[in-house]
Amino acid sequence: MAEAGRATDMAVVDAAEQRWALAVAVIVGLVVAVMVYSGLHWTAMAPARVETIDASTLHLSGEFMEANLGTAREPDRSAAVVRVIAQQYAFVPHCIVVPAGTPVTFRITSPDVVHGFLIAGTNVNAMVVPGYVAVVQARFDKPGEHVMPCHEYCSVGHEGMWARVTVLDKLEFERQHGGARRASCAR
Fold first, then answer.
1. Separation between Cα atoms, residue 81 and residue 133, nearest integer Å
2. 3-class SS letters over the chain
3. Which ranges of the chain does DSSP label H, i.e. alpha helix?
4. Cα pseudo-dihedral 98, 99, 101, 104, rounded to 10
5. Confidence of residue 5 (pLDDT cuts 50, 70, 90)
6. How many CA atoms lie within 13 A of 100 on its CB side?
7. Which end is more exposed in the chain, N or C (fewer Cβ atoms within 10 Å of the end residue's Cβ)?
8. What is the pLDDT of residues 166-184, one digit of tens each?
């Protein structure tokens, strides 16, 4: 009699294990299906707001030539645009200055390899891919200094690739850089 009860218990356990195995298989199948669908969808219909750029000539003319790099204020002083090039093994410009309490748009590109764009202590974080322009919106509420390391391994000099962002009070920013075409950390 004990053997019959044990066999019944084992049958119940086996049925429960089979149901759990089926549930896990269904979940894994759904995850794989979502990954395949997403991959095919993004391959067939790339995001419409992706900007491309000729990485081999970006220094020579246009938006990312050296004279256009750094912080530029909008004519009405309501926002700022910062243009940056991430290249082995430096950010150009190495020091960025922005006004506090102002919407800032970072436009970053790379002529060589994939780099990371991170401003420590903020939510600014982007991958910079050659041939594309990464656009990141930010607002810094308090004046201060932030380090800006590359967080994507870009080769043997990667550990030395960092820059800084100096956030100045609006009035101090205007006092120091009000008449300049581009703002610079040099005082």
1. 13
2. CHHHHHHHHHHHHHHHHHHHHHHHHHHHHHHHHHHHHHHHHHHHCCCCCCEECCCCCCCCCCCCCHHHCEEEECCCCCCEEEEEEEECCEEECCEEEEECCCEEEEEEECCCCCEEEECCCCCCEEEECCCEEEEEEEECCCCEEEEEECCCCCCCCHHHCEEEEEEECHHHHHHHHCCCCCECCCC
3. 2-44, 170-177
4. -40
5. low
6. 13
7. N
8. 999 988 888 888 777 788 7
The two structure tokens encoding residue 160: 């030395």
Cα 91 to the center of its chain, rounded Å: 15
Q: Which residue has the tokens 């530029």?
A: 72
Predicted TM-score (pTM) of this structure: 0.72
Query: What's the pLDDT score for residue 2?
Result: 62
144-170 in b/e form (b: 16+ CB < 10 A) is: eebebbbbbebeeebeebbbbbbbbee
Cis check for the bond before 93: say yes or no (omega within 30 of 0). yes
Q: Which residue has the tokens 């309501």?
A: 78
Amino acid (one-letter) located at 117 = F
Residue 133: what residue type? V
Tokens of 172: 């101090």
pLDDT at 34: 95
**Biggest alpha carbon distance in the chain?**
97
Average pLDDT, stretch 20-32? 96
